[in-house]
Amino acid sequence: MHHDFLDRFARLDSPIHRLPAVLKMASALLLVLTVIITPLRIIYPFPAVALFLILIIALSRVPALFFLRRLLLFEPFVVVVAAASLLQPAGGMTCASIIIKSTLSLTTVLLMSNTTPFTEVLGVLRRIHVPPAFLTLLALMYRYIFVLIDEMQRMKRARLSRTFVTRGMRSWRSISMITGQLFLRSTERAERIFAAMSARGWK
Amino acid sequence: MHIPDGFLDTKTIVATSALSLLGVGRALSVLKTRMSSRKVPLMGLAAAFIFVAQMINFPVVGGTSGHFLGAVLVAVLLGPSEGILVMSVVLIVQCFLFADGGVLALGANIFNMGILAALGGYYLYRLAAVLIWSERGKFVAVAFAAWFSTVLAAVCCTGELAWSGTVAWSAGFPAMTGIHILIGIGEALITTLVLAAIYAARPDLVSIGMAPDAGGEARPLRGVLINGSLIIIGLVLFVLPFASHWPDGLEKIASVFGFNSKVLSRPLVSSPLSDYRVPGVGSLPRATALAGIIGAILVFGISFVLAKIVISKPKGRVP
Amino acid sequence: MTTAAVELKNLCFAYPDNRLALQDVSLRVEAGESVGLIGPNGAGKSTLLLHLNGILPETPSEQPSVFIHGVPITKSSLRQVRREVGLLFQDPDDQIFCPTVYEDVAFGPRQFGLPEKDVKDLVKEALLTVGLRGFDMRSPHHLSSGEKQRVCLAGILVSRPKILALDEPTRGLDPRGKRHLLSLLQSISATKIIATHDLELVVELCQRAIVLDEGKVVADGPVLTTLSDEELMLAHGLEKPHILRHSHPH
User: Is B41 on the interface with A (CB under 8 A)?
Assistant: First the structure.
């Protein structure tokens, strides 16, 4: 699946960005909970949430186009499952429920992650006593995703410069070789990181 | 297979979240007692690796491309508990940063793709590896386990969707699981190829994960029992009630647990798909199940051939 | 004789595949000295540096060969040694492992259990020293090589080490980056041991040069005489740096 560059809007400046992370996370969670738990026949919360989200998006200076594009990416899956649900007796309601709820939740989470730097999210998690080992994993993973993506890019370009076959078993083999290489480099890098961490007193 | 928010109902969310918390919590505590701190950067980087690897396009027909989950790869290389943690971290970051998978659905996604896929795949691999002794045989076992992990995760995912009343089992099972029987082949292929590439350069890395005592648990049997229970509870909750189409024995078990299969089969009856009968076999779900079993045997066979093509004897390669 | 800052007594080290990396290395570095550790690739320079704060050997030996301010490096003295010796690794990406600059520089002090208020002040000071004021919230991925290098340095300087061990500090830096680094290092009074291929850096910064080849010390003397010895330099995969080829009035 194609991913946009991770959280490039997370460090913009806007009234929303300046809000404390814990507030944004709690609100996002509350919004999603409301949307999910409320049955669709109680119609009024849904437009209210939608309007609220539109307002926040406007204030946040994150381009609306970004949200639209991400929604479009996920919509096929949603539409397919929604269509499948139509096969049931009360299908229409289920179908509408799926589409509305997933769209609203998705937008909420996307909004939250694009107005809150990941490090602040980790900070909040630390305060609610998520096990430190787990947090270290999250932090390390986040830090090195970009590094690995770069490495992958370089290997991909090197491969493309010498490749004339872009499909079939041969390309799967070479892509897998590069993937294997990436893993190896990652383990070696992990060793060096461990040395660097130990050098600075980590236990 | 990342389930977005809005697809699962409250009871499914609660059940899956509870199971995931148990599974992840347990993996953490196992690692805390036995893990050297050296493994932390390794797992962090493995998670980044899986994240990036899941983004890679493996070209299939036309403009489409396949992708890869990597749960079994990680579990085999690093160990089962490590595999759970790595996959959970990947899923959490994907959820928060991309909304790839819903926030409330995290429990389900972690259970399916983290715990079931990693653990289920790993145990099947260990089982298969016991039966096939050779070095090459281990790759066959991995390929099969990778395929199996994909199908298992898909089956449970379908169950969760059906339990939530979102998609009828008779429609979901053939569609989702059916597709994943095919996707699983890709997973098997990629996992084996990648593992082979790693093996070619560093056979020692692959052997460590494949060692009989990998997993770092002080009491492995207890670990298997606890992990196994998690898997079984999940399957009982999400899959068993729907499998009541199958042999009557299972239907009896389902009713013991209080699942009135008649209630659940009401939507199934009125779904046009459930009337579809595959000639000579029966309902679509039954046909899918049969396809699954045949597929499993086929994949196992293919894995043998694959292993022969892909793995060259390591003897001449050690520097 | 005063206690040396760093002393190696017959240090030997072999990698798991039995490759002998260091053979009977003995040397003394006095407090405040700046020593350039030079030699061809594979000579063992990085390996030697990794011994200075106990990263190698992986299990501390019964009879330690490395002494920091007179203290042998043993399992119990590791923590103390790591406070006193700041090690800069070759690849900044291996060393900056936290998601923001602030977090990364704060890592060391936090590990030593300092209260957050003190940590904040120390980080601020360290970033100021390396010229990266205001970089706190930056993500390491978006920094240039030079900036990353300085973040690494800040992460070490924050613990106020008395000894700095640097592995190829100018690798990947553009001329401006090199100049910055050079003036920065010149302003720090700690004992410096610098493993590098950058002979111009050695000439500008160090008073003493140690030549390592195949795990053995083959030369140890004042920078100018050692680096001007063409025969010696060529014999060990090096060459006389240009800066010494043309006579300088100063």
Answer: yes
In chain B, the residue whose alpha carbon lies closest to the alpha carbon of A74 is B100
Distances (CA, A) of A135 to A121, B109, C121: 10, 19, 25
Distance CA C195, CA C169 (A): 8
Residue B29 one-letter amino acid: S
CA B204, chain centre distance (Å): 26
Residue of B nearest to A152 (CA): B52
Chain C neighbors of A196, CB-CB under 8 A = 89, 94-95, 97
CA distance A186 to C220: 38
* HEC profile of B243-281: HHHCCHHHHHHHHHCCCCHHHHHHHHHHCHHHHCEECCC
Q: Which residues, at least 6 apart from A133, have a Cβ–Cβ distance to it below 8 Å?
A: B28, B31, B32, B40
Q: CB atoms < 10 A from the CB of C57, how many?
A: 17
Answer for the pair B301, B295: CB distance below 8 angstroms, yes or no: no
Structure tokens at C120: 């904040």
Q: Which has more pLDDT, B253 or B119? A: B119
- Tokens for C131? 């010229």
Q: CA geometry: angle at B60 spanning B59 and B61, to 5°?
A: 130
Give this prediction's pTM.
Answer: 0.79
The answer, for A192 touching chain C at a CB cutoff of 8 Å, is yes
Interface of B with A in 137-156 (CB under 8 A): none
Domain ranges of chain C: 6-245
Instruction: Tell me the ipTM for this assembly.
Output: 0.90
Q: Which CATH number fits domain C6-245: 1.10.10.10, 3.30.530.20, 3.40.50.300, 3.30.2310.20?
A: 3.40.50.300
- Tell me the pLDDT tens digit for each residue of C59-104: 777 788 999 999 999 888 888 888 899 999 888 888 888 888 998 8
